[in-house]
Amino acid sequence: MNASPRTLALFAAAVLLSGATVLRAADKDKSPKNPEPIGDKHFRVYDGKGKPRTLDNLLHRMRNVDVIFLGESHDDPVAHSLQMRLLRQVNEPRSKEAPVRPLALSLEMFERDVQPVLDEYLAGQITEQHFLASSRPWNNYRQDYRPLLEYAREKEVPVLAANAPRRYVNRVGRLGALSLKGIPDPQRRGLPPLPYGEASSAYAAKFNDLMKEHGPKKPEPKKNKKPPKPSPTPPTPPGPPRMPPADSPVKAAPDSRRGLEAQSLWDATMAYSIAEFLMRSPGAQVIHLNGRFHTEKRLGIGDHLLRYRPGTPFVVVTMLSAKSFPKFDAKEMTDLGDFVIVTDPSLPRSFKSEPPKK
Question: What is the pTM of this model?
């Protein structure tokens, strides 16, 4: 595969957008036999300006909105622990409330076209083995997302497979958004109504800044170095980095415009999945899990949600591991969410990452 440095940089940036690296289950033999339980000492809660808050403050805000976005880094064990804790705390008091407000768990980690399979598993109609074989779960599903799904199954909480099918995101990354025009009955195939909306100007600027930040750098000239001897056959350029099936929107985005269109298809599809559920379930509430770039600064999915369902009240919780822990880094974290939860970076990651293969 021939790929220019710019193409490879665009591709690498697309990986970073969802906070993803190659997902691989941790080696059990090398992991601690009795890992330390994750508790309150492993995170700090702040508002978007850096003022210390508590989980009770967060829960109070969560109960007064229709949508709760929990933005994560996919390998953060503290974030996954908090997601489980917050889901329980939002759901369980409902048994004492009258009338009960419907709740759904929405996941970036499953694609819309596997919703029937997910529904069959939640209803006990198929085994977990067949569910996993047919639903394309992420490689870190068992350790990071299975507890949430099993809780939802036990408590009869609907689960939304919210994301766009990766084959269409890949198509947009290669050929552009207009390439979806010929797909018949797009909603049956897991897409939002076409054409989907463009990224907001603020989100586009954020996306492009990240692309520039991770773009190719000019190598420093080497002194007193003899030129390499010509090779009898030209070297093969390195292929794109290995990516998890869950987070590879494109094999190679030819330009930043198509990369942004592919990113926007992700965002628009998740927003439509949420809006569609709320429109058919009046008074309901949705907890949605996603990579934090998708909702930071209330952009991305939030922009598209307000197009599909104007006036929807939502709260953005951004969770990130940082060297500044337990402190709030004002320069890096201000306004990343309505709440910013800084997590302990010293804990072992929930999966191992592999460097790109050369």
Answer: 0.81
